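Researcher: Please translate sequence to structure tokens.
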Amino acid sequence: MIPDRHRPGRRLPRRYRFPAHFAVFAAAVPLLLIAEALSGSTWNLFWPLAAWTVLVTLHYFVASAYDLDNAWVDDRVTDLRARSYDFDHIQNIEQRVREHDASVTPPIEKRREPKDR
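Model: Translation complete:
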């Protein structure tokens, strides 16, 4: 059985009770905005909601940073290794440029070659 933190599609870190904090935030914000709209007041809750949003965001970043484990590191290393093919491709192009290979010669220079001879 795969532990919950390794299941595909899991988005929220479990550390420091972040899902509970986010659930309260996600439920409270619409309710507060509706209450503010029905009461006829405007902008009274802007700064408290803005501050709360910043705190939830910081909580997310901290919880995500501490939610990392060896399985995440292994997945990330595997992903980076899978993408490293690009370095070989770039080195191949650089080598062909040094050798003045026709496959990397710009078309305008190819047209000039017969005239220069």
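Researcher: Any highlights?
Model: DSSP finds five helices and no strands in the chain.
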